[in-house]
TrEMBL record:
GO terms for biological process: nucleotide catabolic process. Keywords: Hydrolase, Nucleotide-binding, Signal. The keyword Nucleotide-binding applies. Belongs to the 5'-nucleotidase family. It comes from Streptomyces cinnamoneus. This is Bifunctional metallophosphatase/5'-nucleotidase. GO terms for molecular function: 5'-nucleotidase activity; nucleotide binding; UDP-sugar diphosphatase activity.
Length: 615
């Protein structure tokens, strides 16, 4: 199995071309009968008559995870034939590179695409160097194209532009002596990210892949809710347009240029009914096993688009959601952190220049034998790609003086991102750290601390990730949990506003997909899932230190700057008064680990019993 990057000559053959106008061709999708006849001509990407199979390899939400993720964030769940499930260790760019290179073998027409959040919220090895290591790795992976995601805006527009075009960091300079960062060798697409003044996309809205006369257009968009999940500074001067309207606009433009085969790269997603990567989300019918924003979007995106590669929710699915004309259309997502990749076969008709999409659903048995779209595990039993190992070793050496410093000790895994519970044990640790740091009068006088669940980016794993020893928490591991270094804030909120914030977890924009806040010690309440909307939070049950919250009383509330700015659909926090700005969330977290643990007395996982769940 190859362990070196594909020759650049091959990359040139798979080049992405500018969208120069070409002669219009007759549009249309083949009928089921014609598609069946054409199937006899299909090879593994080779020219055999009228149709040719184009391989589309895709992934999403890498978040700079070049090394295998720790804890449960580094596994995928697989359902077995007997109905039981097992966890499979997965992820790591050394294995992802090998898996993609192996999958490409025998495919003359192969495209590798991504659906955003390649960078941002990254572990220390990449985040410390403003994600230059990740872009370098993606270049070596021969990534052809990606959409932007919300996390591409964590450091703002100017930094995203630098990621694309290259150049050393404006403040920290070049990280390696004698080397200048070269930028991404693939286009970042941002069709719905507009400059507020000009109304034009800040990066290319689409691009066209071309090889031996086969052309496939790619349109890239991110969630229109990006301003709600990124700091205000990160999206300053930008406007995020509706995903469907944008995709339909540029699909029409591509169609006018004669590009009939179109794929949308969309950083927005859904929630399958099962957490297993091999769950059939087309059971009992097409798309019946998935919910969330992507379902409505997929049903509205023009039939000119032949497939949707999605992300954002970190879920795994390969569904068939009918387009507005009723024709079947593939919608996929490959979980996150490089643990999976999706392999989709697009059958390209040379006469119509369109993708064949039959109106007859493949039977379950036939699909299992020869799936046209499937997610594959990036397992760690396969060989590592030697060039990726060398890349990791190089950047790890640069990061080592900072990354390997011990900052705490734990007695067992403390799950955060990998926890499936509403109240995460690591979320309790983080909020307790914030409350302790900001409770002194001079530091803000905090009585309550809240943490947005999406800001807990990983677990604290007991097993050593390097030579530090089991149970040792390094600075790099703590950074992976809290990579944003958001400044902490303390504000005055009334009891009514505190209750309103809790209700906003399960109402308004968060009703369909609840965002359950992590809460500090002393705050307790009941979440009744048998009810609807805001009523799920039992207002009378909200107590601080065993005493009911008084709606008219003022409380000092702590949270990171993103949450206190109303992020993640919590406008109640934005209404707070008498703001005090404090240390970063990372500094507060590390200080707590250091103060509350030692080699002889490690920190134990908390009970996670602050939120009572009624089902």
């Amino acid at each position: 199995m190859p362990a070196t990057p594909l020759p650049r000559k091959r990359l040139a053959l798979r080049r992405l071309t500018a969208t120069a106008a070409v002669l219009a061709a007759t549009a249309g999708t083949l009928t089921a009968a014609t598609a069946t006849a054409g199937a006899n001509d299909r090879g593994h990407g080779h020219d055999r008559g009228r149709t040719v199979d184009v391989q589309l390899l895709s992934f999403n939400d890498l978040h700079g995870n070049l090394e295998p993720p720790q804890g449960s964030s580094g596994t995928v769940t697989e359902t077995q034939a007997d109905g039981t499930t097992k966890a499979i260790p997965a992820g790591g760019v050394e294995y992802l590179a090998n898996a993609l290179r192996t999958a490409r073998k025998g495919h003359d027409y192969s495209i590798t695409a991504a659906a955003g959040d390649m960078i941002g919220a990254s572990p220390l090895m990449s985040g410390l160097f403003h994600d230059e290591p990740t872009i370098e790795a993606l270049n070596k992976l021969d990534l052809d194209v990606t959409s932007v995601g919300n996390h591409e805006f964590d450091e703002g527009r100017a930094e995203l532009t630098r990621m694309q075009r290259g150049g050393c960091h404006p403040k920290e300079g070049c990280f390696e002596k004698g080397k200048t960062y070269k930028g991404a060798q693939f286009p970042y697409l941002a069709a719905n990210v507009l400059d507020e003044k000009t109304g034009k996309p800040i990066l290319k809205p689409y691009t066209v892949w071309e090889h031996k006369g086969v052309k496939v257009g790619f349109i890239g968009v991110t969630t229109k809710n990006t301003p709600d999940v990124v700091t205000a500074e990160g999206v300053k001067g930008l406007k995020f347009a509706d995903e469907v309207e944008t995709i339909n606009k540029y699909a029409k433009e591509l169609d006018r240029q004669g590009v009939k085969s179109i794929v949308a790269l969309l950083h927005e997603g859904g929630m399958p009914a099962s957490g297993s990567y091999n769950f059939d989300c087309d059971t009992p019918g097409a798309g019946a096993g998935i919910s969330g924003p992507i379902v409505d979007i997929a049903k509205k995106v023009t039939p000119k688009v032949d497939a949707l590669v999605t992300g954002h929710t970190h879920q795994a699915y390969a569904c068939t959601i009918p387009d507005p004309s009723g024709a079947p259309r593939t919608v996929t997502s490959a979980a996150s952190f490089g643990r999976l990749y999706t392999d989709t076969t697009l059958t390209y008709d040379r006469r119509t220049k369109d993708i064949v999409r039959t109106t007859v659903k493949t039977s379950a048995a036939a699909h299992a034998k020869n799936p046209r779209t499937a997610n594959h595990v990036v397992d760690r039993t396969q060989p590592k790609a030697a060039d990726m190992t060398a890349l990791i070793d190089r950047w790890k050496k640069l990061a080592a003086p900072v990354a390997n410093k011990p900052v705490g000790y734990i007695s067992a895994d403390i799950n955060g991102r990998g926890s499936e519970a509403y109240e995460q044990p690591l979320g309790d640790v983080i909020t307790d750290a914030q409350l302790e740091a900001l409770s002194p009068a001079a530091k803000g006088g905090a009585q309550i601390a809240f943490m947005n669940p999406g800001g807990v980016r990983s677990d604290l794993a007991y097993k050593a990730s390097g030579s530090e020893g089991d149970g040792v928490v390094t600075y790099g591991e703590a950074f992976t949990v809290q990579p944003f270094t958001n400044l902490m804030q303390v504000k005055d909120l009334t009891g009514a506003q505190v209750i309103a914030a809790l209700q906003q977890q399960v109402s308004g924009p968060n009703e369909a997909q609840p965002k359950i806040l992590q809460v500090s010690s002393g705050l307790t309440y009941t979440l009744d899932l048998t009810k609807k909307g805001a009523d799920r939070v039992v207002a009378s049950s909200v107590k601080l230190g065993g005493t009911a919250i008084d709606p008219a009383k003022t409380y000092r509330v702590a949270g990171n700057e993103f949450l206190m700015g109303g992020g993640d659909g919590f406008p109640a926090f934005k209404e707070g008064k008498n703001k005090l700005v404090a240390a970063s969330d990372l500094d507060v977290f590390i200080a707590y680990l250091t103060a509350h643990s030692s080699k002889d007395a490690p920190l134990a996982p908390p009970a996670a019993n602050r939120i009572t769940i009624v089902k």
